[in-house]
């Protein structure tokens, strides 16, 4: 019976097709302003759309299947004065409550326009989530989407090259942790369809939509509904814009060196310098250049039934800029005593730009309103990024960038979405997408991006400055020739189909049922250390499958909202694995479909008119990454320190609880206090298995972790003036190991693996952020002879404070207790100032963005002997005095986060 049930669900998924929501609901009541009696038959319309409803005998109405965005809602009834409510924000997966009181007016006078409403607690919000609107996305003082995400308390990104997961920066993979979880526990979607790389289980750092394509970003860090899966810590859903009712467009130019704009031919050139430089030295060297924009509206002669939008960006900058000390080698006077402790290669003082990044993306979408009940969206997205990191964990390449890898990441995505509202109470979605991602890592013959990529047999082993050992006593410290360690290419092609149907079954029950199916094609061809006689090689193509189904009931009463759901996740890696990796006589077995059921519950109970109590519970599962399942598919254990993948891995599990209180302090302020707990089990791990004649390491499901904490969120909003969000997270993250490969790196066996949870290096006890938006409207602000110089100005400020990371202290040459000390706090303040002008009906926006306003030197790495980034400690200092190491070895400004950055922008909107 169990097999039959699984097979039946798989077949349903194969013929079905999404899961993540993209629409919201509007509901409320219409009453007589004097008698307070309900008005039946009143008409509610979303202007500019074909959506509307009429009130029932109780004066109640609801409109489902509304795309996320802002609308003007109007209500009318014969004999009453009409009301218009502009700027009503519809959020995905949420019910926006909007009530009306109509006044009798026999003369049917002019419609009343509501200008503002109190800032109230959202009574159907059962767990913590953050929703960011398009105008806020474009105005935030961030350089990329990851900074937008990590600006939220409880979400942190590891910037350190040294403490980051090995190989992540080289491959352009971002390491982000949510509420004390491991990296790779975030699900990223665009309009409900996944863009996570299936091979690594993460998102590439620059696989992100330009901000002109976004309508809304929904970040769920708490217990999320059963319709969301594939991640255990967070879901981030990006909702794209449709074309509007009239032709509109934007174009923005941004640069850290405004001197570039005086010769546009140099703007994106990789070789030509600016005619002259404007700005602080580090910004001139960073040389950030960005052009982005969008254009859309109705397709002519289609009576507004067909709309389009095209957006994109192109950018070039250095990868990073650091300020080195002034102790350099004096080549003009080699025997100068100041040269005694300086490496001969160290000849550049002060600021240095290292690495580079260039990239572009192009997004287009065509929306066809077939009729009042059907809509078809077709979208396409292409992007490419080429970069050279300065992964300074590999410190030896500091003076030889030409030998470092260059990464090229390309992606393209096509999607079709069909929405059909069958009746007032029922609609369904069908969605299909293809997402292709490709990465190539290699070294060029001239060390530049325009060079010819070397074949693996052309790689030469890295060499130090042995030819100058007589004149350079520190010849052994840095690499001066040869090539980096990777020749790598992979691609992942994912076909994904979704179907879900939503029915407002009764006034109080909204049912949603859905299913999904994904088919991946994963290819990898990698050679590590190509110059060896027997380098490490990895080459295969696999076709794993994934499927899921869910059922969700949204129960809504005036006093309570309940989210009740059940989710089924399944996957089959379509590969072979050892049935018992510990056995001497191992047998190969074929993988099979594995499944996991995940119940979800969330509810919000009204305490007062402006206060609620919330509770959430859920089981969450996540697939082990395919890299860990397929690596070394030949199961060759005769190489040095072999590791073997395991397609018999089970899903990783997490159980989460969340409870909180949301209170409206006044008409403009809401306070949330949320407690949460997460218990992890079956996490992917690595263990060394000692056997004769060859020992090896393999992947198992033996790791475990715990994370607990509390969030405090204060939101204050005065419409048309300012908004402020203050977030604070206190948390504690413990685990037996920090990531799946730790057992391999430490050659841990069943006997030596940690038997208890310890504080993790990615733990941050305190995480505080303040996000402030303030605007000065027309004819406001200081006046000078009737002129208002600051009118139509918007300031967005973001301040963050993050407590230090745990580290293991070293006393003398002996390591202390693991992660028993903490590094220093980090403090950062960014702002973006935008001044709007109107010239002949066209908006011009001048902006200045400053990151790390106070130019604070935040330590992101420290020396374990001293607990700071500037002093390596007594033992290493003595080795410098004895001439074993040069001072150059310990001039490491990259142990600090980026210094102050200033970018200027000009935007034209029409």
Task: Summarize, please.
With 910 residues, this protein is mainly β. 5% of the residues lie in helices and 47% in strands.
What's the assembly state of these chains? Answer: single chain
Number of helices: 7
Average of per-residue pLDDT values:
90
- Backbone shape: globular
Distance, first to last CA: 62 Å
Report the β-strand fraction as a percent range. over 45%
Helix content: under 10%
Uncertain runs = 1-19
Question: Based on helices, strands and strand pairing, what is the structural class?
Answer: mainly beta
Main beta sheet: 22 strands, antiparallel, barrel
Q: What do you see in this structure?
A:
- The chain is mainly β and 910 residues long.
- Helices cover 5% and strands 47% of the residues.
- The protein has a 22-stranded antiparallel beta barrel.
- A hairpin with a 7-residue loop joins strand 29 and strand 30.
- The radius of gyration is 29 Å and the shape is globular.
């Amino acid at each position: 019976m169990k097999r039959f049930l699984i097979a039946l669900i798989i077949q349903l998924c194969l013929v079905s097709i999404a899961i993540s929501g993209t629409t919201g609901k509007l509901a409320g009541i219409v009453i007589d302003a004097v008698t307070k009696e309900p008005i039946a038959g009143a008409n509610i319309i979303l202007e500019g759309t074909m959506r509307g409803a009429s009130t029932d005998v109780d004066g109640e109405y609801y409109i489902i299947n509304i795309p996320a965005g802002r609308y003007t809602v109007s209500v009318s009834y014969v004999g009453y004065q009409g009301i218009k409510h502009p700027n009503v924000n519809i959020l995905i997966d949420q019910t926006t409550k909007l009530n009306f009181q109509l006044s009798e007016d026999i003369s049917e006078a002019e419609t009343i326009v509501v200008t503002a409403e109190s800032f109230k607690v959202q009574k159907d919000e059962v767990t913590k989530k953050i929703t960011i609107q398009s105008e806020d996305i474009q105005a935030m003082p961030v350089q990329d989407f990851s900074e937008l995400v990590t600006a939220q308390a409880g979400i942190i990104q590891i910037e350190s090259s040294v403490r980051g997961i090995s190989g992540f920066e080289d491959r352009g993979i971002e390491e982000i942790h949510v509420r004390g979880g491991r990296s790779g526990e975030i699900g990223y979607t665009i309009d409900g369809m996944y863009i996570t790389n299936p091979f690594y289980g993460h998102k590439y750092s620059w696989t992100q939509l330009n901000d002109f394509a976004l309508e809304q970003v929904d970040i769920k860090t708490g217990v999320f509904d059963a319709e969301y899966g594939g991640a255990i810590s967070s879901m981030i859903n990006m909702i794209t814009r449709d074309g509007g009712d009239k032709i509109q467009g934007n174009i923005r130019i941004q640069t850290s060196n405004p001197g570039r704009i005086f010769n546009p031919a140099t703007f994106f050139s990789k070789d030509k310098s600016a005619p002259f430089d404007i700005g602080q030295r580090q910004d001139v060297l960073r040389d950030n250049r960005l052009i982005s924009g969008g254009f859309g509206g109705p397709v002519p002669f289609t009576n507004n039934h067909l709309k389009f939008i095209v957006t994109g960006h192109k950018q070039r900058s250095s990868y990073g800029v650091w300020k080195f000390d002034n102790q350099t080698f004096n080549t003009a006077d080699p025997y100068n005593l100041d040269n005694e402790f300086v490496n001969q290669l160290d000849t550049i003082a002060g600021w240095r730009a290292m690495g580079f990044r260039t990239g572009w993306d192009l997004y287009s979408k065509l929306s066809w309103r077939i009729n009042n009940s059907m809509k078809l969206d077709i979208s396409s997205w292409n992007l490419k990024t080429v970069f050279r990191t300065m992964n300074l964990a590999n410190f030896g390449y500091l003076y030889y960038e030409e030998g470092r890898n260059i990464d090229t990441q390309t992606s393209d995505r096509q999607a079709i979405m069909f929405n059909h509202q069958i009746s007032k109470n029922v609609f369904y979605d069908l969605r299909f997408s293809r997402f292709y991602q490709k990465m190539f890592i290699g070294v060029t013959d001239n060390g530049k991006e325009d060079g010819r990529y070397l074949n693996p047999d052309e790689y030469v082993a890295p060499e130090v400055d042995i030819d100058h050992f007589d004149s350079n006593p520190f010849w052994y410290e840095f690499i001066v020739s040869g090539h980096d360690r990777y020749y790598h290419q992979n691609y992942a092609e994912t076909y994904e189909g979704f179907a879900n149907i939503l029915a407002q079954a009764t006034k109080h029950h909204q049912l949603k049922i859905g299913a999904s199916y994904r088919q991946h094609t994963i290819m990898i061809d990698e050679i590590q250390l190509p110059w060896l006689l027997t380098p490490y090689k990895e080459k295969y193509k696999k076709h794993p499958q994934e499927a899921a189904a869910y059922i969700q009931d949204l129960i809504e009463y005036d006093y309570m909202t309940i989210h009740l759901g059940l989710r089924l996740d399944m996957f089959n890696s379509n590969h072979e694995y050892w049935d018992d990796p510990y056995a001497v006589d191992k047998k190969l077995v074929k993988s099979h479909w594995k499944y996991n059921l995940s119940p979800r519950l969330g509810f919000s109970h009204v305490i007062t008119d402006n206060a609620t109590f919330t509770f959430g519970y859920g089981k969450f599962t996540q697939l082990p990454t395919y890299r860990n399942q397929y690596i070394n598919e030949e199961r060759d254990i005769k190489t040095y320190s072999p590791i073997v993948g395991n397609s018999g891995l089970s899903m990783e599990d997490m159980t989460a609880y969340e409870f909180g209180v949301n209170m409206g302090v006044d008409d403009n302020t809401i306070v949330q206090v949320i407690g949460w707990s997460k218990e992890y089990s079956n996490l992917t791990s690595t263990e060394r298995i000692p056997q004769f004649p060859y020992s090896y390491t393999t992947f198992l499901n033996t790791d475990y972790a715990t994370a607990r904490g509390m969030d405090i969120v204060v939101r204050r909003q005065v419409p048309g003036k300012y908004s402020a969000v203050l977030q604070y997270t206190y948390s504690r993250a413990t685990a037996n190991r920090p990531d799946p490969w730790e057992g391999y790196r430490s050659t841990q066996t069943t006997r030596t693996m940690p038997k208890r949870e310890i504080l993790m290096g990615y733990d941050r006890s305190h995480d505080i952020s303040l996000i402030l938006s303030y605007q000065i409207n027309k004819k406001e602000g200081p006046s000078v002879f009737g002129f208002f110089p600051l009118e139509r100005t918007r300031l967005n400020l973001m301040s963050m404070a993050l407590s230090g990371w745990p580290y293991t202290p070293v006393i003398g040459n002996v390591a202390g207790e693991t992660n028993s000390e903490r590094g220093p706090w980090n403090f950062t303040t960014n702002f973006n100032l935008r001044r709007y002008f109107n010239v002949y009906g066209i908006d011009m926006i001048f902006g200045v963005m400053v990151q790390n306003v106070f130019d604070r030197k935040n330590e992101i790495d420290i020396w374990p002997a001293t607990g700071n980034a500037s002093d390596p400690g007594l033992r290493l200092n003595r080795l410098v005095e004895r001439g074993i190491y040069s001072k150059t070895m310990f001039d490491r400004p990259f142990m600090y986060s980026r210094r102050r950055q200033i970018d200027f922008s000009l935007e034209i909107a029409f």
